[in-house]
């Protein structure tokens, strides 16, 4: 920091000496006015030179320096867990609605799996209720078409079988 300040002061001093010598050598008249303008521009450039070397700070860099990385990671994990819970609950409610359209009352448990950063998809589904084989087949097909969960990851239980 001190080295940069010293360099800046030396450049401003050198520019001031150069401008003073140039003005002393320029004859009076319109040429002197142009010389003054030029000297003023040289001094302004010398004074403002440090501003040209400044870099802007990206918002991500500012955020990383402001919050400890552990807090950011904790918030991301909390966000992911919340998203997973919402998707599981909404998928379960959707299946309960589809079962109600078939005339069945049931409870549904959905387990989601992560498919990349922050993307959760239903992975395994457990339906607890009294379904006839036909209703179970229709619901299995509906779940596979709408949610992409194949029949081998769908389980059906009766109320007596559930723990």
Characterization of the model:
With 163 residues, this protein is an alpha+beta fold. It folds into two domains: 2-52; 69-157, GMP Synthetase, Chain A, domain 3, CATH 3.30.300. 63% of the residues lie in helices and 14% in strands. It has five helices and three strands. Helix 1 (2-25) packs antiparallel against helix 2 (30-52) and helix 4 (69-101) runs antiparallel to helix 5 (133-147).
How many DSSP H or I helices?
Answer: 5
- Provide the β-strand percentage band: 5-15%
Helix and strand content put the structural class at alpha+beta
**What is the element string, with H for helices and E for strands?**
HHHHEEHE
DSSP summary, beta strand count = 3
Q: Identify the overall geometry.
A: rod-shaped
Tell me the CATH architecture of the largest domain: 2-Layer Sandwich
Main sheet: which strands, in order across? 1-2-3
Radius of gyration: 37 Å
Mean model confidence by pLDDT: 84
CATH topology grouping of the largest domain: GMP Synthetase, Chain A, domain 3
Helix content: 55-70%
Number of separate structural domains: 2
Low-confidence stretches: none
Termini separation: 69 Å
- Assign the CATH class of the largest domain: Alpha Beta
Tell me about the biggest sheet? 3 strands, mixed
Give me some keywords for this one.
14% strand, rod-shaped, 3-stranded mixed beta sheet, 163 residues, 2 domains, 5 helices, alpha+beta, GMP Synthetase, Chain A, domain 3, 3 strands, single chain
């Amino acid at each position: 920091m001190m080295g940069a300040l010293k360099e800046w002061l030396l450049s401003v001093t050198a520019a001031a000496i150069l401008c003073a010598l140039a003005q002393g050598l320029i004859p009076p008249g319109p040429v002197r006015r142009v010389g003054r303008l030029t000297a003023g521009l040289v001094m302004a450039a010398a004074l403002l030179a440090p501003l040209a070397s400044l870099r802007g700070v990206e918002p991500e860099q500012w955020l990383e320096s402001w919050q400890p990385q552990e807090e950011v990671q904790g918030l991301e994990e909390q966000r992911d867990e919340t998203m997973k819970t919402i998707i599981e609950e909404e998928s379960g409610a959707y299946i309960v609605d589809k079962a109600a359209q078939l005339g069945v009352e049931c409870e549904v448990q959905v387990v989601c799996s992560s498919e990349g950063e922050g993307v959760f998809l239903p992975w395994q589904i457990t339906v607890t209720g009294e379904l006839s084989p036909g209703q179970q087949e229709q619901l299995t097909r509906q779940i596979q078409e709408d949610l992409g969960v194949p029949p081998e990851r769908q389980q059906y239980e009766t109320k007596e079988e559930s723990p």
